[in-house]
Amino acid sequence: MASPLPASVGEARIKPWPAWQNRSVPRDRDVRAFHDRAPSYESGWLGGMHHEIAHRTGQLALCLDRTPQRVLDVGCGTGLLLRLLAEGLPGSEELVGVDAATGMIAIASSLASDPRLRFSVGVAEDLQFPDAFFDIVLSTNSFDHWENQGAGLVECARVLSPGGRLVLTDLFSLWLAPTLLVGRRGRARTKHRASELLGASGFHSIKWHRLYALIIKTAVASK
User: Fold this and answer.
1) Residue 5, CA distances (Å) to 27, 63, 68, 97 in order
2) Among 47, 61, 104, 187, which one is least packed by beta carbons within 10 Å?
3) 194 contacts 168 by C-beta, under 8 angstroms
4) How many CB atoms lie under 10 A from the CB of residue 19?
């Protein structure tokens, strides 16, 4: 499990840990659901939505850095985002994806034709990579399902190189505030909550982008 805060994060930038993030949510139910959905994840109208969100997130990442050597996708699903990025990043050394659902990793590996693509089972809260290993860390429609969002963000900061960027796309909207009172207590489902958590995890210079529909937004943050 991740340490409370990476040693490389300067204390001057650390903000108080939000009290609401003291809760975590069980992972097993979500993992089973995504495992079962893996074969059809890129099909139908939902598949079309996933593709559009991945495409827009990828375009945003490419605007930030056209020459990253190593890219990590946390909660990579079927590897769609990394496959799209591989086309626009011919100079990158490796593009790595981790996901808690074995079914997703199986599909991602089977669809990976680029030798730079690598996929493995893993969780955000315990990333099995060295410190400062990646130039960009991305996560698309996965963050809301992390068991402990704060611990996961700390791990993302740890594996990012100094000056690296986190690109975090998910459900962030005041329209979702009522869900924080019931089934999604302790989730960072608004821009304010997510910004709080990003700051407490060692990120700074947080910028928000409207990505898809009304409730899906992207936070870009620097280490």
Assistant:
1) 22, 29, 25, 23
2) 47
3) yes
4) 9
Mean pLDDT taken over the chain = 86
Identify each DSSP E strand in the chain by its residue range.
70-74, 94-99, 117-121, 134-140, 160-171, 204-212, 216-222
Considering the domain delimited by 50-222, tell me its CATH architecture: 3-Layer(aba) Sandwich (3.40)
Q: List the structure tokens of 209.
A: 């982008």
Strands (E), 70-128: 70-74, 94-99, 117-121
Summarised one tens digit per residue, pLDDT across range 91-129 is 999 999 999 999 999 999 999 999 999 999 999 999 999
Reported pTM:
0.85
Domains of the chain, by residue range, sit at 50-222
In 3D space, the residue among 120, 127, 145, 122 whose CA is nearest the CA of residue 3 turns out to be 127
Would you say residue 61 has pLDDT above 90?
A: yes
Q: How far apart are the first and last CA of the chain?
A: 20
